[in-house]
Amino acid sequence: MSEETPNPQRAKTRNPWLFDTHELNRRAGSSFHLHRELPVTTTLGVPEVIEVPQDSVVEVDLLLESVVEGVLVSGTASTVTRGQCSRCLDPVSGKAEVNVTELFAYPDSMTDETTESDEVSRIVDDWIDLEPLVRDALVLALPLVPLCSEDCRGLCSGCGMKWAELEPGHGHETIDPRWAALVQRLEETSGGDTASGSDR
Questions:
Q1: What are phi and psi of 101, to 5 degrees?
Q2: How far apart are CA 104 and CA 91, in angstroms?
Q3: Residue 134: what are its φ and ψ, rounded to 5°?
Q4: What is the pTM of this model?
Q5: Which InterPro entries match (predicted)?
Q6: C-alpha distances in angstroms, 37 versus 56, 61, 80?
Q7: Which of 19, 52, 100, 189 has the fewest CB atoms found within 10 Å of its own CB?
Q8: Which of 180, 183, 161, 181 minimizes the C-alpha distance to 170?
């Protein structure tokens, strides 16, 4: 195993998510470790609910191994998240970390020839694109119902205040909607002489 050692002759201005596999040279068993901080150029997730913000970074710690059919990528990816609590709507922040494993098939390999284009990742001109692999894994790992805490009680449906900030015993008197019209009528006629139903 070796660390990443970029070849100056192949270095160029490029997408930082692309990785050059040229040095593996299709030698089965050769491998090296890749550790990078990669930029997030587009917000991932559901904005204002839970997301990986644009302009944040994803830290990847990966092992790339040359196998007969391609390059096997495995390791972890982690990044920061932000959003709002689904119960009380307070801002929340956290960290998402995922395990990733993916085979990137060599051109003209058996895997390349026997699988559809969307069934396996592929190496193109000795380059592999890590972004779809990491992006999809992170999005799937985001919570569907983000919470500021597991015991968050949310908001009072009567006044919209946070239950955590309200006095014990807080509540609102409610009237059965079937009686609401009668209560309104009584309030409108209370104190009126003609509303008593008495004869003149």
A1: -145, 125
A2: 38
A3: -70, -40
A4: 0.70
A5: YceD
A6: 10, 9, 12
A7: 189
A8: 161
* Tokens standing for residue 51: 């997301």
Q: Which residue is associated with the tokens 């009380």? A: 88
Strands 121-122 and 127-129 turn out to be unpaired
Percent of the chain with pLDDT over 90: 42
Q: Which residues contact 141 (CB under 8 A, 6 or more apart)?
A: 96, 97, 98
**45: which 2 tokens?**
């997730």
**Cβ(101)–Cβ(72) under 8 Å?**
yes
Assigned token pair, 131: 């972004």
pLDDT digits (tens, 9 = 90+) for 59-115: 999 999 999 888 999 999 999 999 999 888 889 999 999 999 999 988 876 776 677
How does DSSP classify residue 24? G
Report how far residue 63's alpha carbon sits from residue 82's, in angstroms, rounded to the nearest whole number: 28
Q: Is the separation of the CB atoms in 85 and 155 below 8 Å?
A: no
Model pLDDT for residues 27-53, shown as the tens digit of each residue: 888 898 999 999 999 999 988 899 999
